[in-house]
Structure formats: structure tokens, C-alpha cells
Write a structure and sequence with these properties.
This protein is of the alpha/beta class and 299 residues long. The protein folds into 2 domains: 154 residues, Rossmann fold, CATH 3.40.50; 120 residues, TPP-binding domain (Rossmann fold, 3-Layer(aba) Sandwich), CATH 3.40.50. It has 7 helices and 17 strands. A 7-stranded parallel beta sheet has the order 6-10-5-1-2-4-12, sandwiched between helices. Strands 14-13-15-16-17 form a 5-stranded parallel beta sheet. The protein has a 3-stranded antiparallel beta sheet with strand order 7-8-9, with no helix packed on it. 40% of the residues are buried.
């Protein structure tokens, strides 16, 4: 496989670093890492750069990070698809006179980087070719993770944030999840309605040893679940053996993020689009169907 000369990975989470390191190593002879949190390294990484104070705002280090990457002129920059990642990706791309490629599902290299991502809510595939340096935000689960190795002699980057003062940092409470690797998923949509019915869905997930997921409105509008659990074209993509959709209408923005071996749908609307996507469907209220299903599974 043809490779470019060099690449950079910019990420904070250890899982993201291990995945993006494996991806970068597929396409580049040399891989450098900017670790935005605790120093981590992986197989295939040749150089590691860390922040002098990883607890401070990433914005304080944006200038130093962009300067470093521009000086080394990599052909590929893979960035974790997070708020900080998107911020840095935009600044890096602007410095190279290009644009960021986000929500990418597939990357190829034939002397230039070609990416594919879903468009129009999953009804089309958008193909983009990079003229020179490609700056790509990559979703979780796009590459198999590389093995972790000790982080030896990292280069420390100093803050160069002019006009920015770090005041305070507060941890955002989020549930740990690994939806992209889950073998079974129970997903709730807006039809779940309230916390009482959500508790029933969570009980079902516990009985069948499944991860919980949701549609975007459940997380971002109703705030019933954390945003790292929403599934769809702009969220997490999942490939489970079993996918149970409870109160999920089945709009393409959601279903384009689901590739399951078997889909079971529970919805009170018999005309819901999800019924054209499922292997087995139940028309009924979640509050009536779930207790009976849970009781059968426990017997």
C-alpha cells in the first residue's frame, strides 16, 4: 500500500489515540502525536508531544500546536472528533489554506487523500479529495485500536495563548460507554417519553447485557441521556448483533448510523419508518410491551 511521508494525530482520550494511531500508521511512514490530556503512546507512533499543563484549556495551546504541525508539513492530520478536536482541526486547516473533513467514514490514499462521508441524512455519499494536507476529524470506531506502549521522552509544548486566562475547569459528568463495539444495543427514541419508561428500557438492557443508546433529540433536546450515547449520522455509528429500538421513529438521520445483524422495533405508531427497517416489530406502548418482554426474558 502506498504511503505518504508523515502524519499527525491530535487527540485527548486514550481510546481515540490508540485508534487514530493505527489509522495514521496505515497511511504514513512517520506518525507524530499531540496528546491533549495525559501522555499516552501507541504502536506506530514515532514522536509524542504533550501539553505543559493538560488540565488547562486547550485554547491556550492552540497557537503552539498549529505552529508545530505547520513547521513539519504533514500530508495527513487525523483529529479526534470532539469539541476541542474540532476547534484545533479548524485552526490547523485554516493555517494550511484548506478545510476540515468531518464525520468521515472511509479514507483512501492514492497519492492524495480521498474521504467519504454520508450526506443529505444518509441518502448520499460525499467524496472529497485533498489537494495537499488533509485535515480529517474521525469518528470513534473507524480503525482497530493499536497496542499501547510506554510514552518515553515526550516533547512538552508551552502555552502561547495571548489574551486568554485559565480561570477554572469543571469536569462534565458523562456515563462511560463503548457503543461502537457493543454486541447488543437498546436504543430509545423520543417515543420513550419520560424517565419512568426509560428505566424500563434500561432494565431490558441489563437483562440482555446490552449498551444503552438514544436518538439525538433524547440527548440534546429532552436531556434524558448524555450526548455521548446518541446514535446516528452525526453521532456514534454502531454495528451490533442485536439492536432493539424502543420508541424510535426510524428517520434516516438515525438509521444511517446503524448496521445491525438483527433489529427489533417497539413503537406505538404502526406507520413508523422503523418498521420497514426491522426484522421483528411490535406495535404498542413501551410501558405495556417492555415489562412483558422483560418478564419473558427473566423466566
Amino acid at each position: 500500500m502506498e504511503k505518504c511521508k508523515s502524519s499527525f494525530v491530535v487527540a485527548a482520550g486514550k481510546g481515540a489515540i490508540l485508534e487514530l494511531a493505527a489509522g495514521a500508521a496505515q497511511f504514513a511512514e512517520k506518525v507524530s502525536l499531540v496528546a491533549l490530556a495525559a501522555p499516552v503512546s501507541a504502536q506506530g507512533i514515532d514522536a509524542v508531544y504533550t501539553l505543559e499543563d493538560p488540565n488547562a484549556s486547550v485554547a491556550l495551546y492552540a497557537k503552539a500546536i498549529v505552529k508545530l504541525i505547520c513547521e513539519q508539513k504533514p500530508e495527513l492530520v487525523l483529529v479526534e472528533q470532539s469539541r476541542n478536536g474540532r476547534l484545533l482541526a479548524g485552526l490547523i486547516a485554516a493555517a494550511f489554506g484548506t478545510s476540515v473533513q468531518t464525520d468521515v467514514s472511509e479514507i483512501e490514499y492514492d497519492g492524495a487523500f480521498v474521504t467519504k462521508r454520508a450526506g443529505y441524512g444518509g441518502l448520499a455519499v460525499k467524496v472529497e479529495r485533498s489537494a495537499e494536507t488533509a485535515v480529517i476529524c474521525v469518528s470513534s470506531g473507524s480503525f482497530p485500536a493499536a497496542g499501547e506502549v510506554p510514552c518515553e521522552a515526550p516533547v512538552v509544548l508551552k502555552a502561547e495563548g495571548e489574551g486568554i486566562t485559565f480561570v477554572e475547569k469543571k469536569e462534565k459528568l458523562q456515563q462511560r460507554t463503548n457503543l461502537s463495539a457493543a454486541r447488543r444495543v437498546v436504543c430509545v427514541g423520543r417515543g420513550i417519553g419520560d424517565e419512568e419508561k426509560l428505566a424500563l428500557a434500561e432494565e431490558l438492557a441489563g437483562v440482555i447485557e446490552a449498551e444503552m443508546g438514544c436518538t439525538r433529540p433524547v440527548a440534546e433536546e429532552d436531556h434524558l441521556m448524555p450526548t455521548n450515547r446518541y446514535i446516528g449520522v452525526s453521532g456514534v455509528s454502531v454495528k451490533p448483533e442485536l439492536y432493539v429500538a424502543v420508541g424510535v421513529s426510524g428517520q434516516v438521520q438515525h438509521t444511517s448510523g446503524v448496521s445491525a445483524t438483527r433489529v427489533i422495533a417497539i413503537n406505538k405508531d404502526e406507520h413508523a419508518p422503523i418498521f420497514s427497517e426491522c426484522d421483528f416489530g411490535v406495535v404498542g406502548e413501551a410501558k405495556d410491551v417492555l415489562p412483558k418482554l422483560i418478564a419473558l426474558l427473566k423466566d
